Amino acid sequence: MGWPSDAEFKRILSGQGNSIINAPVTAEDVTRARAIYGGSAEQLIVGKTVRKRANKNNKILRTALPSDLVRHHPTEILDIDFFYSDYAPYLIIRGRNILFIIGVTFNKRKISATGRVTYYRPTDEIVKALNDAIALHNNRGFTVELVNGDNEFERIKGKVNATVETCAANEHNPFAEREIRFVKDRQRCYWDKLPYKQVPKIMVDENIIDVFYWINQHLREGSIAKDISPGAVIEGRGPHDASNLEVTFGAYCLVYRESKNNRTPRSIRAIALRPSNSQGGYYFMSLNTGKRIHGHQWDELAITDEVIDRVHELAAKEKADFLDEDGIPKLGLRPGHNMTIDDTDIDEEDSDDGSVYVYDDVTVSSTSSEEESDGSDDSSYHTSDVDDDESLSEDSEADISEEEERSEDASDEHEEPRSEDVELRSEDVEPRSEDVEPRSEDDADVEDNSVESNDEDTESEYEGEDSSEATNSNGAEERPQRSQRVRRPPQDPLNNIGSTDGKSYMQTEEFNFSNLAENLNHTTTRQLYSRAVDYMFNQMTATEGIKIFQERAVAALIKEYKQLNDMCVLGVIDYDSLTAEQKAKALRAINLIKEKRDGKIKGRCCSDGSGQRKFVPREEASSSTMSVESLIALVTIFAFEKRDVAVFDIPGAYLHADLPDDKFALLKFEGQFVDIMVEVNPDFAESVRYEKGKKVLYCRILKALYGMIESALLWYNMFADVLMQEGFKINKIDKCVANKIVDGKQLTIGWYVDDNIVGGQTKAVTDLIEKINKRFPGLTIQRGKKLEFLGIDFYFRGDGKVDVGTVPYIKQMIKDLEEELGMVLNRKYTTPHAKWLFKVNKKSPKLNREKADIFLKYIMKVAWAMKRSRPDVEFTNTFLMTRVHEPNREDWHKFMRMMSWIKTTQDDLRTVGADDLLHMLTMTDSAHAVHDDMRGHTGQIITMGTGVLDQKASKQKMNTRSSTDCELVGTSEGLPKNIYFEMFMEEQGYKLESNVLAKDNESEIKILKNGRDSCTSNMKHVAIKQFWSTDRIKNGNIEVVYCPTDEMIADYNTKPLMGKGFTNFRRAIMGWDHISVSYTGYTHPKERVGNNKRKVTNDSSSNHAKIVERQKKTYAEAVKAQNEECVKEMKQHVTAASSH
After folding, report:
1. Cα separation values, 872 from 503, 655, 877, 1000, 1072, Å
2. Same domain? 990 vs 1054
3. DSSP-H helix ranges across 218-264
4. pLDDT at 558
5. pLDDT above 60 for 321
6. What pLDDT, in 10s, does the model give residues 72-111?
7. Acidic residues bias located where (predicted)?
8. Cα dihedral across residues 708, 709, 710, 711: positive or negative
9. Structural domain contains residue 26
10. pTM for this one?
11. Cα–Cα nearest to 923, from 1050, 1069, 1077
């Protein structure tokens, strides 16, 4: 449509000019899109942004130094120390009297052969930074008489233009340490709520610069200057114009660049870093190059997933460390490394820029790189940026570095930079060069005196370089040659068509945003997700986890090992005292890494208990866990009674249970994990040995370690004993559910190993959690209406119902499938199956092994979700489960249809609720001989009014001769669930007053009621199994009633319904409609009167409802009444015809 402006687009959509018709969006959609995504579509901003005049009205204010301040306080003491952010070193220089702070970064680093990145802190750079800081104070009339630091600064004595004093060994400078804590507290605030998990080092550097700037800009308590800031004292800076603080750190912006008379985009996609001056200029990180650019005009947009992925890709390219679990740079030295200042300086060819940051307008660059020195190797102060220039030019404020323009516009011809452009680069773009040299492990002596980090840069180019200029070996300039860039064929113009959602990007030579997903296939971030087996259960070995998550995985394992050590799970044992048999029976330590739903990395150390099966009795090798059926019943009770519900997790649950004294078990660590264990507890070092050239460590197991066969039962017995001591009574039907009466109200707890859900009165719930927390400290607790338990999201509504969902799980499942297939599931279906679902074409080609594995994996994933949040897909999936052994191409089409439908409905939640807790309805139906082996299919639902407590769709386990036989088999297969719920509810204190079984086969109803009296000799083959149902019905509390076939909701789970039947029954099963909407024979508990009467609502043709009293009838009476109604209707029709 030619990319009209937003105002013009709204006029077009409003019909003015009658230029288009049948548009899928409205003018209001444009307004909403602007509000959601922060402005116009990116293409409009990139292509149409025009230059605005720079702010020339703000006079740069300076602050004069009070003469009496220097007269009364002529001397200063500098306190120095190192601090670390993302394991990179920073030197802080703090004036003890004025409290002015200066920061020094160290960007010189090397990479080992194993990929380890190491930072250096050369002595000459530290000395130069200190001398420059001293000179800065001298220029304002203050004499630095003393520099005070830790013992590691001994080597700079005699090299600094002031006396250097150091603390005693193992002592620290308290003034510097207090200032470092102050800086770190400020730094954490910047990163809160940012969506990034890994960032390039430039973002951390610029963030620290900004922290220093604002600390110096404000008054400091304890400073000798009571009325002016430290920055005003040392640099004479005036107040900062707050009206120019328009964007926050980490925001996503489109930064205007000087337009040219060609097709170059007028904006650059970038991340905001910090103000560059007090006149409205800002520094940004270009998302194209990852380098710093300068601009004064931009548009802030919402941070999209593509932007986050691009930041992660830039960070991964540097091998930058991951942020911590809270999204904040790791503020500390890497564990296990004691660093000292490098004794020898780095060779000049390897040097890098260590920059001294006073604040943004006073920068000391110490660089010995020939490319950046511009003829001067000495560091000097620049009154940089534009604050000190009263005659601010628009060009100097608006331009972005020429190299940035060239890197984004590969189609432009190479041209000589203008002199003013070169000058701008030296001011506005701070040089950053990070040489990378592979080195061997033999360089361990250098590494030990360095700061280790994961940062890396594969380039050694400067922003100030002109990459278009080429020189020969003699340094002479070569003649201009034809560009050697790869000529690419014209691209599909559809690739550049975007939308107002801000997620479509123009293509550039260096980075192609429109094909972002493809470009990310080889990044660490994309590998992380493609390797995950499941969004929630993405567990992997520690070796694989360390490759993917790197330092985060190592830190998670150290945390896990420390927990084992703190809880005395493992004990030291003399290696020489072990027999060969004991060592052979030792359990191998298995180390696992898992990424949780919130992005945190969790380590787990467990034992390989498979070898114990020969020695542990079966009764000691199993333990109860709460069933899904019990969980759904509990949340239904909690919602109906509007209880306060909480969820909590007991960390390291098994580790609280002691191993019996008569049990002797060993855990065997191997390889690199031995070193981690020894680092956590050096007492194990004496037990380390080598077996077959591999380092091993045997530890005695003192607690119920994860992986041991008997651990589950040991923990269960311990936790159940704790609850019973608190007065709880265990449910006999589900032994992982317990109840207690508190102040006349029931308090219920259910647990699945270490995950617990509890419901009751608020005070009772709180008291229970506090007691359990005292017994097992460190609980992770959730309270409120929205809770997550065992990967299931529960939303407790105010109307006595609960919504149940696994939306993140399903979305990740679809995403993983699309990535594995390399395609997008974009077809839309109204049902997950076609009419011919049960038809099997045995001539269809079999799937290859790769596709068959995908078929099996995702069928099982859907099976997990269907029993928890998606009962509407169970029928289709259970049929496909019968095809996992030899799936063919036809099965694959059915599978893809189901997955496409799931994607379309991926946000759907099921609702469960009860009209009351004393009445239950079960509807069971069966389809005869529908499978290819002529077996039937059983469908069933159990409900208390809204949604279903449980559902069943399964292939029958035997062949039958008739539909009646098939129905009987289905009833016998489904009835145990009915009885389970009845017994479970009774144990919970809710004895059912009504337990109705609805059937649509009249012959089966006779058999169920009359038993052998209605049986013929032809049915003896099913007698033994199916008369169990009759026995349960006669001796139990089950009432069998007739249900018309077109109202049998269980039919949803027996045959591939389409159209209205599918839609209506699905709404009933998902709980979006009450059961009575589909099944008019359902009687609401409030409508029951007397012992044998009920109210039935009948809709007349005039849509007027009338309530009638009706006596319950036997089956024979019901049939007789139905016949009488038919005769009556026929007479009415005959009478009407006669009158005509």
Report:
1. 33, 40, 10, 21, 12
2. yes
3. 230-235
4. 87
5. yes
6. 888 999 999 988 887 788 899 999 998 999 988 888 877 6
7. 342-353, 386-414, 442-468
8. positive
9. no
10. 0.53
11. 1050
- How many domains is the chain partitioned into structurally? 5
Domain boundary among 777, 804, 831: 804
Residue 1111 lies in a domain: no
Whether 1074 contacts 1031, CB under 8 Å: no
Task: Return d(Cα 1062, Cα 1053) in angstroms, integer.
Answer: 10
Q: 998 and 947 in one domain?
A: yes
pLDDT tens-digit profile of 790-813?
999 999 999 999 999 999 999 999
* Stated length of the chain: 1140
- 729-730 vs 737-742, strand pairing mode: antiparallel
Same domain, 649 and 708: yes
Whether residues 989 and 862 fall in one domain: no
Q: What is the pLDDT of residues 611-669, one digit of tens each?
A: 666 666 666 667 888 999 999 999 999 999 999 999 999 988 888 888 888 788 888 89
Q: What's the pLDDT score for residue 26?
A: 80
Structural element, H or E, at residue 648: strand 644-649
Q: At what angle do helices 524-531 and 807-821 cross, to 10 degrees?
A: 110
Buried b (16+ CB within 10 A) or exposed e, 963-997: bbbbbbbbbbbbbebbbbbbebbebbebebebbbb
**In the prediction, which pLDDT does 968 show?**
87
Residues 338 and 435 grouped into a single domain: yes
C-alpha dist (Å) from residue 909 to 388, 595, 817, 832, 1074: 61, 25, 21, 16, 15
Are residues 921 and 898 both part of a single domain? no
Give residue for tokens 């604040």.
359
Q: Show the domain range for 627.
A: 622-659+702-804
What's the pLDDT tens digit per position in 1001-1022? 888 888 887 765 555 555 555 5
Yes or no: say if 1019 and 1027 are a contact pair by the CB < 8 Å rule. Answer: no
Tens digit of pLDDT for each residue in 703-749? 888 778 888 888 999 999 999 999 999 999 999 999 999 999 999 99
Which residue reads 């049915």 in tokens? 1019
Higher pLDDT, 658 or 900: 900
Sequence-distant (≥ 6) Cβ neighbours of residue 48 within 8 angstroms: 3, 5, 266
